[in-house]
Amino acid sequence: MAPRPGPFARLIEVFHTPPYGRVLEILFWAVIAVAIAALGWLVYRYPNEPLAYLIWIVAGCTLLFGLLPQKKHDAPPPPPKGKRGQIAQQVKASKAEKRKGPPPPIQ
Prior knowledge:
single chain, mainly alpha, 4 helices
């Protein structure tokens, strides 16, 4: 059974699968930026103006991060057909087995 993807992976999947996923992603980051800007406004109300400006810069950067273009990765090419495909699958499995490392010690 495959492990369940983490919360961040599920969030990214929500942003990239629905028809308006990109709009949802921009709104998500915009809401976070507005919350940070509101915190900056609260800091500004008290005599700490430079800190408020720094917080507003962070809010602006958060909003700009949400507007960055997102590119999906291309799907891996299908394995070759025939004998070459079988050999390629065996090599891939062998490399995965080597990466896995030795089995745990028996107790």
